[in-house]
Amino acid sequence: MKTPAVFFDRDGTINIDPGYLGDPELVKLFPNVPQSISKLRNIFGFKIVVVSNQSGVSRGLISADDVEKVNLKINELLKPEDALIDAFYFCPYHPQFSPIEKCSCRKPSPEMILTAADDLNIDLSKSYMVGDKASDIISGFNAGVKTVLISTSKNDEQIIILQKEDKRPNFVAENFSSACNFICNDFSGGKT
Ligand SMILES: [Mg+2]
Question: Is 11 a residue of the active site?
Answer without folding.
Answer: yes
